[in-house]
Amino acid sequence: MDQKILWAVNHMPKTDDKNLPIMGLEEIAKARTFHESFPQYTKTPLTKLDHMAAYLGVKEIYLKDESYRFGLNAFKVLGGSFSMARYIAKETGRDVSELPYSVLTSDQLREEFGQATFFTATDGNHGRGVAWAANRLGQKAVVHMPKGSTQTRLENIAKEGAQVDIQEMNYDDCVRLAAKEADETPRGVMVQDTAWDGYEEIPSWIMQGYGTMAMEAGEQLKEYGCERPTHIFVQAGVGSLAGAVVGYFSNLYADNPPAFVVVEAEAAACLYKGAAAGDGQIRIVDGDMETIMAGLACGEPNTISWDILKNHVKVFIAAPDWAAANGMRMLGAPIKGDAPVTSGESGAAPFGALAAIMSMDEYADLRKDIGLDENSRVLLFSTEGDTDPDRYKNIVWKGLDK
Ligand SMILES: Cc1ncc(COP(=O)(O)O)c(C=O)c1O
User: Fold this and answer.
1) Which helix (H) or strand (E) holds 285?
2) Domain, as residue range, for 147
3) How do residues 205-239 score in pLDDT, each as one tens digit?
4) Which residue's alpha carbon is nearest to atom 16 within ligand 1?
5) Whose C-alpha lies nearest to ligand 1, atom 5?
6) Where residue 32 sits, what CATH number does that domain have?
7) Which has the closest alpha carbon to 97: 183, 32, 151?
8) Which residues are catalytic?
9) Coil, strand or helix at 185
10) How many domains does the structure of the chain reveal?
11) Which of 53, 95, 362, 363 could form a disulfide with 61 if both were Cys (CB 3.0 to 4.6 A apart)?
């Protein structure tokens, strides 16, 4: 625990918030209806951890468990599938609401649209989602993975019929490679879970797809009798997920938004660095970005999300690996009476950060900056299960660091 949790309170200049409507409630309702049309669809559980909340000194803790998403062990497929549907809708002159799963997979639509090749780069979860969706929709997928990606993750993508490889380069360079290949391939389409200047439409659809998870969570909170959480913690790699969650809940609770906290892996904390610099400009992290949080090992922020985050996030946190590892162990073996949650490295990072902040004296100031106390009702997202099963066992069962 030599490495400390770092944080930056958001004092960045506000903008005109032009990207917030991407996560408008009506748009997200469409994504939700689309996902509901899949035969594999069920709402993922929102687990309430009462004993853990009492132990950590907050009122309520709610954890959305995405290990149950479509049998894929992570939330990511929500974005890939919805963006591909919106792309096909646009190409065939329809609204996405006219393309539920049954129509998208029909012979008639396949004949009309034909076959495209969807290119992407991934640490694992996004690529698996794209490969899965392409497989179901009768489309082709090409997936590049960065140096250090595990064989298990590659095999899970290959199983869906995609062409997949591990490159000798980091995630952000894999993105550039996939973009180049998509450009050079007839009917090649880049379906990347991040945006940059000039590449914004598909990533905004991906963020809307993630909105299904946020919308479900909002409804499930109500079922528990919680009209509104006081705090929402969300993890970030490039920040598409965080932009989606922060954007959706800023729209849902427009009159009284919760305090949003973004949690990154310290080795790849580009958003935190931007917030710490304070001028509103993007900061980039380069190099290998070694962390157990594979899904968060991205050093170049999504440009459209960044705008949403700048306007709405209260605190940006850079979490060391030990925080994520502790979070995995605590969720896997919680206090008696609470349900265990299988949460992977990137999934458990926000909970691990919350647990450290609430239980370690050295983070008393951070507790204050976020405004966490015995009245706090906290919503978090466990965005993946044991997507790397060997590493999961090493950390949770054997007590290793990675
Ligand atoms: C499990 C998991 N959680 C969180 C994230 C972060 O999402 P984003 O890159 O949109 O910030 C990822 C990204 O791959 C992921 O795989």
Assistant:
1) none
2) 74-197
3) 999 999 999 999 999 999 999 999 999 999 999 99
4) 295
5) 295
6) 3.40.50.1100
7) 32
8) 76, 123
9) coil
10) 2
11) 53
